[in-house]
Amino acid sequence: MNKIILNIIRLICLVIVACFFFSYFVISCMGEEANISGKDAAFGFDMGNNIKSDPSPVFIFIPGVALVVLVVMGIPSKKNEFDTSKKKISGKNYIPIIGSIIGLVLLIIVYNKSIGEVKKQIGVRDISEVFRTGIGFRASVVAYIFMFVLPFVDMILIKLKSSPQNYGQTDLKR
Fold first, then answer.
1. What span, in angstroms and rounded, lies between the C-alpha atoms of 151 and 146?
2. Which helix (H) or strand (E) holds 135?
């Protein structure tokens, strides 16, 4: 894997972990807004007005997947891992793809679970009036999408580098 792309994936993993502490969801109730971070949702929170949330451990897996990808991508696989003369696609290209798919599925699960919890607690039909996603959730989604796309960019770059460079030489026979 290209060293630049590998470092970008590592940075994306750290961004996902940091987003866990930012607002995942915003709930408006009785004129007040509550920002709920991934940490709050994972360990439970009290919004007041007899609205409480039980801990939801599935939230912990969102940054957990990013940390696993970060650790696995940090383990050197070969002595000359960044030797571009080999022009070979390694198995490490698939780690961020698998991790991002798992992360996006987890985000969908927690989104649906949170909507169900808000409907149950508050009892409204139109959830858009009281529930919206926060910056931490949206940034995590975008980061996981980038983590999914970057290995494919690396694979394309490797294929382009390994293809013959005979652009100016044509061998047309008539």
1. 9
2. helix 135-162
Whose tokens are 């939230």? That residue is 59
Mapped onto helix, strand or coil, the DSSP state of residue 50 is coil
* C-beta of residue 46 within 8 angstroms of C-beta of residue 52: yes
Written as six digits, the tokens of 123 are: 């009892």
Q: For residue range 71-110, list pLDDT tens digits in order.
A: 998 876 664 554 444 556 667 788 999 999 999 999 999 9
Within 13 Å and on the Cβ side, how many CA atoms surround 10? 12
Helices 94-122 and 61-74: crossing angle, nearest 10°?
A: 170
Whole-model pTM over 0.85: no
DSSP letter (8 states) at residue 33: E
